[in-house]
Amino acid sequence: MKELKVNLGEHSYPIVITEDFSLISKYARNKNKCVIVADRSVELLHIDELREAVNKHFKEVFVYSVEPGEKSKSLHMTHRLYDFFILHKMCREDVVLSFGGGVIGDLAGFAAATYMRGIELIHVPTSLLAQVDSSIGGKTAVNLNQTKNIIGAFYQPSLVYSNYKVLKTLPKEEVKNAMVEILVHAIIKDAELFRYMEDNLDRILNLEPDIMEVLIAWNCDIKKSVIERDEKDLGERAILNFGHTFGHAIESAMDYKYKHGECVALGIMGACYISEQLGLCQGDLIIRIRRVLNRIGVFNSMQDCDGERVYYFLLHDKKMNGGNINFVLPIQIGEVVKQEIKDFSLIKNAFEKLKNQKW
């Protein structure tokens, strides 16, 4: 077991990385009622084990199941959660517990942040992507009119509890997609982590237990250190968006046909191509990054992707500034720079290169 602490003053909380659910009652604060907002697929596999742990702590436990997938992250589903909270007389002394991947964490987190102006939130992430990234940092959001994460709030959980044993039931594609987010952390902050991935990629993809606890804790430590310095995404935290500006636009333009990690992989390469045009990075850096992404196996064809739709979603991105688009661009492994792109032809050139690239 490993334990880290996100230090945010009165909003500080622990991250627990372990191999079962038995310690949740040690860390949960409130003991009244708990609503578990669960991904339906995860519920079928793991809800009995989780309920056994939480039933020992809370007076009453209710489960609300949500269909997996990005389309559940909506205002409509948020409204249904509010109705469920009201039905069970949830109050500010109660707890919302998210049980699933990033979609469930975002949805349950947003509902918890806005119901009665905020009730306690616990994240129990069950995907590798959520364990290393989305469960940490307090970003909650839902989508609107296909624009990803456009409505949301910063709302820190009281606990992030990651059981890495549940990862064994993940489809291989989900593990590969999570590896993209781990690669983001390595490129922006940690050259040693990048080399570790190059040397141990097969073992990581096989979810070997001795390596997973180390890897999850390593990534949580990187992300928490950034969040502690910039909780509300006003400065340094923006570097965590590396690959996501293009990635979110592609994800929306493709109507969520591709997985989040697949789109971020394309976004990473798009950012690399913009950086290369600006003379900020060299071709050998791009080759090294592309080689790891190819080994992970997450690239998808862009032949069916409509460039005009991508540009539309880029121009409606929440990181827009005065008509210009903010990108995070690589300089070298472990170092990136925030750049406001005023020349839209750089973006179009990068997209065309993505579209014509044979991975």
From TrEMBL:
HAMAP family: DHQ_synthase (MF_00110). One of its GO terms (biological process) is chorismate biosynthetic process. Pathway: Metabolic intermediate biosynthesis; chorismate biosynthesis; chorismate from D-erythrose 4-phosphate and phosphoenolpyruvate: step 2/7. GO terms for molecular function: 3-dehydroquinate synthase activity; metal ion binding; nucleotide binding. Zn(2+) binds at E181, H244, H260. It is an enzyme of class 4 (lyase). It comes from Ruminiclostridium papyrosolvens DSM 2782. Residues 65-176 form the 3-dehydroquinate synthase N-terminal domain. Residues 179-320 form the 3-dehydroquinate synthase C-terminal domain. Belongs to the sugar phosphate cyclases superfamily. Dehydroquinate synthase family. It is found in: Cytoplasm. Catalyzes the conversion of 3-deoxy-D-arabino-heptulosonate 7-phosphate (DAHP) to dehydroquinate (DHQ). This is 3-dehydroquinate synthase. Its EC number is 4.2.3.4. Binds 1 divalent metal cation per subunit. Can use either Co(2+) or Zn(2+). NAD(+) binds at G102, V103, I104, G105, D106, T126, S127, K139, K148. GO terms for cellular component: cytoplasm. CDD domains: DHQS. Keywords: Amino-acid biosynthesis, Aromatic amino acid biosynthesis, Cobalt, Cytoplasm, Lyase, Metal-binding, NAD, Nucleotide-binding, Zinc. The keyword Metal-binding applies. Its cofactor is NAD(+); Zn(2+); Co(2+). Its main location: cytoplasm. It catalyses: 7-phospho-2-dehydro-3-deoxy-D-arabino-heptonate = 3-dehydroquinate + phosphate.
